[in-house]
């Protein structure tokens, strides 16, 4: 079977700074002409600032991959990685500098929601205008009109000029039009973030139905749970190059680890500014790793972290103890285990130096960075206290299996939950687990 999309050694170069590659434009030519006329009539010519030097920027470099018909592939990467440029090349909006891109079948692009909307026209008129720009026939738009309006939820304002719409109404209607295209290949660039939470859920369901309908989809998004939930495969771009291409979960995990801010995951504590006055410098170093591989300094949601604290004291300790307090972004404590509550196995002999290892299984936290306070001492008292000693980085994951996570304002904890609906007047049925963290 021929691939729906084949990209071979694709590269795209842009010229930054300076004048246009083809020389002066009409405005510049007229400006020079008027300046010359000023000299004729005795006027002084204004001094033009020197143009900045032109330089090359390669948005894509030797990108190659194939997409089979009916496959749903996520394109991920940081801002400036080349994702949107790739989609524009595939959509024939820009031409590649080198290489080639073959697309077999009618392609529909959801790149910039709302492109082609006219502010003076009504919502009804813009549905027809925008649908035509996106490649739909008038008969096709008329057939889907009621479905588009119902999806957008703007029926009471359908005959109002869109310049009077709120920003949310505007993007809902624009996405509703674009989402009802029926091409063989659909190219989507970060459009599932439009509107409120309820509308985003509708968008996600629409995307899932498109993929299940057998159409080929390329989906660009920074929402990793949505990508993992919708796509079976991912292509990761970095600085215009393909870094990884494979199963979505594996590629997303590699991308998350590469892009996380991990500067506070391995820290020298000997001169840490968070040490409290009067502390004895006993803790020498702290590091956090993903317990699954023992070296990666970030942990996915519901993963297990390992905290290692190296210590050295003047007198041997028969019962070295460690306590930690994990805090949120506002430095409010979330939880704080310690070896006085959950003791370590007994030490065979007193130690002057060693490493205390703390495992935190199935971390119930939302994505983010969490500072940790460390308390080190003996059974009787803590004699070395360091605030904000080390940071725990938690990476996003599709823990609920729905491609969605609770909103950020719901708090830092991602807790498992089961749900049950009991009809009135009937005995309670066995609990059915509808959503859960894994």
Question: How would you concisely characterize the structure shown here?
Answer:
With 438 residues, this protein is of the alpha/beta class. 22% of the residues lie in helices and 30% in strands.
Task: Please describe what this structure looks like.
By secondary structure, the chain is of the alpha/beta class. It has 3 domains: 5-56, no CATH class; 69-259, Rossmann fold (3-Layer(aba) Sandwich), CATH 3.40.50; 266-395, Coagulation Factor XIII, Chain A, domain 1 (Distorted Sandwich). The chain is built from 8 helices and 18 strands. It has helices spanning 26-40, 83-90, 123-133, 138-152, 167-179, 197-212, 224-230, 248-259, and strands spanning 5-16, 55-67, 72-76, 98-103, 107-110, 185-189, 216-220, 233-238, 241-247, 266-268, 283-290, 299-300, 305-317, 321-327, 333-335, 351-360, 368-377, 382-395. It has a 6-stranded mixed β-sheet, with helices on both faces. The protein has a 5-stranded mixed β-sheet with strand order 12-18-17-14-15, covered by helices on one side. Strand 14 (321-327) and strand 15 form a beta hairpin. The protein is elongated and about 85 Å long.
